[in-house]
Q: What sequence folds into this?
């Protein structure tokens, strides 16, 4: 059976720099893959290519075995409905209330009536343990952790098959971060979706990943089950996991 | 450094910028004419761009009309043509000053506002988020703004025309000893439909330029607060330059 999502030989050049130089990853249903790597190593670009936010220079993005980069826009649009994404800063629309944010796709793309959409938004808020009392406030009035919860509710409301998480715990205190990690694990399990996260928070990676892959210089340099992270035998992974400035990877200061 | 090379680079840069803006404007027009139209967004933009611009347009128009009447009176007095104040005021306001000044004021108010809003949405990944929520930012964000500005600017200019003429009237009657009834009769006898229509056509085009330039600069902004600031400045400067250039072209086209 084809993987839910597969990237084959993705290359992307940005401002004269080869950010991705042939990235291959695949992830199945009910599996969670975490991509780790230093800042500026192309982790975000790896997520943006399958979402259609960036066009890869070469390579394929296969969803259920079909290459979305070669689909006509209207068919691709339909496939894109299988994706949900939690953005690093939440990326909530500040002109809309929290529930309108969460129900944005239902109201604007799926043409669900506002009353039904609101009901489903509140149900999604309960799922991510965000009190429905906040449904009518603006996102700016929420704390960082609550914004992440709202972003997660927005990503899962249409029951996606593939979920992306961009630095889900960045900027959160350790306790809130752990609560978000728990939620991610719970949602991936409940929806049965394929999850791809990027992070440099090792505690988060260990908690949410079934498998971990390390991206360095535009390539996946190591991939293995979370349990084998400490015995990878890869000096770059060891350096990254231990958080040492000395080693094969040069710190960019 | 070779001065010819830098002139060439500048020219090529400008031409490619014009090309990119044209392609963006074309995409915006296509989004206006292809469903779905986000009616709620469109009405909200009509309110934002149209209704909320009324004070600034009204104040500008009344002072320009008043100053125009004074200038024409002084100039006309040099060859005993003071009586033409109402005729020239209405001509100047409807054909040129109404649309151009409304366009310039809204380049500051509306184009900058659109660039800042869309630019902030760009740098905080809200536009990317919209795309992942199966909603085309061109249809949801850009088309309603472009359509609202193109349709409301002519209405604003019509209001500006009336208020501008009133500004001239107030000065003429109160300070220049004109008879009010005669002033108004001269105004209405002299002005022709084509003068007003020329102004309204200009207004529609300027409205399009203002919204499209603001959206273009905001959509392509990058690099945090600095980038949004740059986008806002470029939107104002870009739309003002384009308005003045296109104003000449439309005027020349109608005169011939």
A:
């Amino acid at each position: 059976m084809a993987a839910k999502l597969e990237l084959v030989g993705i290359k992307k050049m940005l401002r004269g720099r080869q950010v991705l130089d042939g990235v291959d990853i695949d992830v199945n249903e009910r599996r969670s893959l975490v991509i780790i790597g230093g800042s500026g190593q192309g982790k975000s670009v790896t997520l943006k290519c399958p979402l259609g936010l960036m066009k890869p220079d070469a390579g394929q993005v296969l969803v259920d075995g079909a290459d979305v980069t070669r689909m006509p826009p209207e068919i691709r649009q339909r496939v894109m409905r299988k994706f949900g994404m939690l953005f690093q800063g939440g990326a909530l629309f500040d002109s809309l209330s929290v529930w309108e944010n969460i129900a944005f796709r239902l109201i604007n793309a799926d043409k669900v009536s506002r009353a039904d959409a609101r009901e489903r938004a509140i149900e999604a808020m309960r799922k991510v343990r965000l009190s429905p009392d906040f449904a009518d406030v603006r996102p700016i009035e929420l704390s960082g952790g609550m914004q992440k919860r709202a972003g997660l509710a927005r990503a899962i409301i249409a029951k996606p098959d593939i979920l992306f998480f961009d630095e889900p715990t960045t900027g959160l205190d350790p306790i809130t971060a752990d609560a978000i990690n728990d939620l991610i694990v719970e949602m991936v399990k409940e929806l049965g979706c394929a999850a791809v996260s990027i992070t440099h928070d090792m505690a988060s990676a260990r908690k949410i990943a079934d498998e971990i892959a390390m991206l360095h210089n535009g390539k996946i340099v190591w991939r293995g089950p979370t349990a084998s992270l400490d015995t990878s035998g890869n000096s770059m992974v060891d350096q990254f996991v231990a958080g040492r400035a000395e080693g094969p990877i040069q710190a960019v200061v | 450094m070779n001065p010819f090379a830098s002139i060439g680079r500048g020219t090529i840069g400008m031409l490619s910028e014009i090309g990119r803006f044209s392609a963006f404007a074309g995409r915006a027009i296509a989004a206006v004419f292809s469903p779905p139209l986000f009616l709620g967004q469109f009405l909200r933009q009509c309110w934002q761009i149209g209704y909320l611009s009324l004070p600034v347009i009204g104040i500008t128009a009344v002072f320009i009309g008043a100053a125009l009447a004074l200038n024409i009176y002084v100039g006309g007095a040099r060859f005993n043509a003071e009586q033409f104040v109402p005729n020239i005021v209405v001509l100047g306001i409807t054909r040129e000053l109404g649309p151009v000044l409304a366009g310039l004021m809204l380049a500051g108010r509306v184009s900058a506002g659109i660039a800042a809003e869309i630019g902030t949405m760009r740098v905080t990944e809200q536009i990317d988020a919209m795309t992942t929520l199966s909603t085309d930012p061109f249809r949801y964000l850009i088309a309603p703004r472009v359509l609202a500005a193109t349709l409301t600017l002519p209405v604003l200019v019509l209001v500006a025309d009336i208020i501008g003429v009133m500004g001239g009237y107030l000065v003429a009657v109160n300070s220049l000893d004109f008879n009010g009834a005669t002033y108004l009769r001269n105004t209405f006898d002299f002005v022709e439909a084509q003068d007003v229509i020329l102004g309204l056509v200009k207004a529609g085009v300027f409205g399009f330029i203002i919204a499209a330039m603001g959206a273009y600069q905001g959509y392509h902004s990058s690099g945090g607060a600095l980038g949004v600031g740059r986008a806002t400045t470029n939107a104002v400067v870009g739309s003002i330059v384009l308005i003045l250039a296109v104003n000449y072209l439309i005027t020349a086209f109608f005169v011939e």
